[in-house]
Amino acid sequence: MSAQSILAVVERDRIFFRKSGGGVTFSGGEATCQPGLLRCLAQRLGGSGIHLALETCGQFSWSENEEALKLMDLVYFDLKHMDSGVHEKLTGVGNALILENAVRMAVAHIPMIVRLPLLPGLNDSAENLEQTARFVSRQLGTAIPIEILPYHILGRQKRKALGEAYALGELEPPSADALDLARSILEAAI
Question: What is the pTM of this model?
């Protein structure tokens, strides 16, 4: 969609935002992969009374996205694994740029919530959880919350219907006990 088309949809829905307190969330894929469009929309919508949020994996060019990022009311920033080698095995890229961008956001005082997509056996070790909590509290600030996003299997059927392999195979969501343990490890490490 063009910027004009998106803005027309947002304008049409503005009345709902006023009544619900909602707004526009830039998500993906990865919205920062289209920095010109993101900047244009953030500039046009920023300060207009519409709440702006961004969901990001953090793998983006800071210089190309800085202007738009500073107009966000909130950024949901995913941290998948603190070990760069493991991160690369899981996602295809290391985490150096991601961690740099998280620190840049904190320094720029961009409101942020760190999210940890929790995948059993892949990033739920006590060591990774502790390192995540320490990074957030020491590098980003103790006021930055960490939310756990439990892995789910909603994409499994979609991939099957498309005739595609599901990258995570038969991985199952974390149990309620595993989620409680992960939360307690994060809280203790802050």
Answer: 0.93
